[in-house]
Amino acid sequence: MIPQAFDYTAPKSLDEALGLLAKGAKPLAGGMSLIPMMKLRLAAPDHLVDLRRLKDLNYIREQGAAVHIGATATHYDVENSAVVRGKCPLLAETAAHIGDVQVRNMGTIGGSIAHNDPSADYPAALQALEAKVVLKGAKSERTVSVADFFVDTFTTALEPGEIIREVIVPVEDSGTGTSYQKVAQPASGFAIVGIAVRVRKSGGKIGMARIGVTGLANRSYRAAAAEKALEGKAGSATEIQNAASLVAERVDVNSDLHASADYRRHLAVVYAARALMAALARSA
Amino acid sequence: MNITTHINGKSYSHDVEPRLLLIHYLREVVGLTGPHIGCETSLCGACTVELNGKAVKSCTMFAVQADGANVVTIEGLASNGKLHAMQEAFWNEHGAQCGFCTPGMIMASKQIIDRNPNPTEEEIRHGLEGNICRCTGYQHIVNAVKAAAKAAGV
Ligand SMILES: Cc1cc2nc3c(=O)[nH]c(=O)nc-3n(C[C@H](O)[C@H](O)[C@H](O)COP(=O)(O)OP(=O)(O)OC[C@H]3O[C@@H](n4cnc5c(N)ncnc54)[C@H](O)[C@@H]3O)c2cc1C
Ligand code: FES
Ligand code: FES
User: Fold this and answer.
1) CA spacing 20 to 30 A to A95: which of A211, A284, B31, B79?
2) Could you give the CA distance from residue B119 to residue B153 in angstroms, rounded to a whole number?
3) Is the CB–ligand 2 distance for residue B56 below 6 Å?
4) What is the CA radius of gyration of chain B?
């Protein structure tokens, strides 16, 4: 499996990289999605610009009430970062579920969300976190919500010549409980269904519930009806079950050789209940 | 494109096509046939090598991405005729049968212990998720990692 020939540049600066991308080159990050596609000749870029060596894109830092994660932070970096584990544990837990060690050592958060595989893990957590994505072009910079960033299968709000610069997630309030629960496709590890949950209680009642879903539909989404059903509830087993039964409501569910639409829908309800229970048990 | 890599402690410079995969560079250009090609689709881990201290699948990486990097293959583990503790443990615990997966399996196992000298069985299995073995049923491999951790502890 030999890819089609291409030119390769490892630029020294972000500006140099953006200049090349403006001329039509394609970014290469960890290569964990792009190289398999090139080997199968599903992708045949003429020119690859390697972002992995740019220090300007590789960081994780806490800034005010948010954690900023540079695009080339690897899944391993996110899984093990003291800042992410302490301030945004849902994202660290999700990163640990991606693929295998070798994939996590190379694959990056920017590459994963730019690729926007409908079965990728990060989108579930980023939807539940109401994360923001900073997009940079040679002459522009803009910030979009993940709800607007993830457009459709393998399609995002990225314009030609733009790259993801960073992902911004909130510092979790103490007392918030979070959990990511996933049914993995046994060969690749991708999510057949993945549910990310954040819940916070006040005065014994659920004040905030966020549920991000991946694997089920053409794009990741927030299960708004299920979130709403939990607000003001104590979180009894019946209340959790009722809310979980709404996660796939009015969703056009995918079907493939790994799971039929009906089976996926069933798994989503079961795993939403599990994620809600785990998150509530971790909330104060 | 001209690249310089440091492989098992030796420097190499070659002019390579950007599309040359690291596994093909190692096996066909440098002549290190320890890392194997099992699946060529990023799933089996037989091609695992260490790149700047991190286990990677060399079938899913271009040689040009390794320009300037330190690479360790299975050939680089033994020193002065003495096996690495993980190789010794695989031998003692019968962690290899046909041996096809073994070069990648040992590199992934080494990563587990390098990062966590005292892993639980669950952590060992999590660390080996990227490596497939058709022979052993994994139990002896897990035993080998445990034995290597124990040997390093004493
Ligand atoms: C065996 C295997 C198992 C896997 N299992 C899982 C899994 O369980 N869950 C999961 O979520 N993923 C899984 N993946 C995918 C993995 O997470 C990839 O790391 C990820 O999808 C792509 O990230 P990358 O850094 O490798 O990007 P690349 O492959 O380098 O790039 C992917 C795409 O994004 C573009 N791109 C990269 N960086 C940027 C940027 N900063 N700005 C704009 N565009 C950019 C590239 O041009 C390309 O189109 C698996 C992959 C493999 C090989
Ligand atoms: S040959 Fe590289 S993962 Fe199988
Ligand atoms: S020993 Fe034969 S594949 Fe593992």
Assistant:
1) A284
2) 12
3) no
4) 15
User: From residue B78, how far is each of B72, B85, B141 by CA, in Å?
Assistant: 11, 9, 19
Domain boundaries, chain A: 7-50, 55-170, 176-282
Angle between helices B102-115 and B85-92 (to 10 degrees): 120
Give tens-digit pLDDT for A79-98. Answer: 999 999 999 999 999 999 99
Q: Name the residue ranges covered by the structural domains of chain B.
A: 2-76, 85-153
Spatial distance between the Cα atoms of A119 and A258, rounded to a whole number of angstroms: 12
Do A106 and B48 count as a contact with CB atoms less than 8 A apart? Answer: no
Looking at this predicted complex, what is its ipTM? 0.97
Which fold, A7-50? 3.30.43
Minimal CA–CA distance to B119: which of B89, B86, B147, B85?
Answer: B147
Q: Which of A4, A8, A187 sits opposite B64 (nearest CB)?
A: A8
Query: Is the four-CA dihedral A51, B108, A88, A239 of positive or negative sign?
Result: positive
**Closest by alpha carbon to A240, among A200, A278, A214?**
A278
Taking only the tens place, the pLDDT of each residue in A44-75 is: 999 999 999 999 999 999 999 999 999 999 99
Residues of B in CB contact (< 8 Å) with A are 1, 17-19, 21, 40-43, 45, 48, 54-57, 60-62, 64-65, 67, 108, 111, 126-127, 129-131
Contact yes or no for A126/A207 (Cβ under 8 A): no
CATH topology of domain B2-76: Ubiquitin-like (UB roll) (3.10.20)
CA dihedral over A144, A145, A148, A151, signed as positive or negative = positive
Whole-number Å distance between alpha carbons of A58 and A72: 5
**CATH topology for the A55-170 domain:** 3.30.465
What atom in ligand 2 is closest to the CA of residue B45?
A: 3
Q: Is A134 on the interface with B (CB under 8 A)?
A: no
Minimal-distance CA residue to ligand 1 atom 3: A99
The residue to mutate among A9, A38, A46, A103, having the most atoms of ligand 1 within 8 angstroms of its beta carbon, is A103
Q: How far is CA A229 from the centre of its chain?
A: 24
Topology (CATH) of B85-153: DNA polymerase; domain 1 (1.10.150)
Q: What's the pLDDT tens digit per position in A118-147?
A: 999 999 999 999 999 999 999 999 999 999
* CATH 3.30.390.50, applies to A176-282: yes
CA distances from A184 to A119, A191, B127 (A): 9, 5, 16
pTM to 2 decimals? 0.97
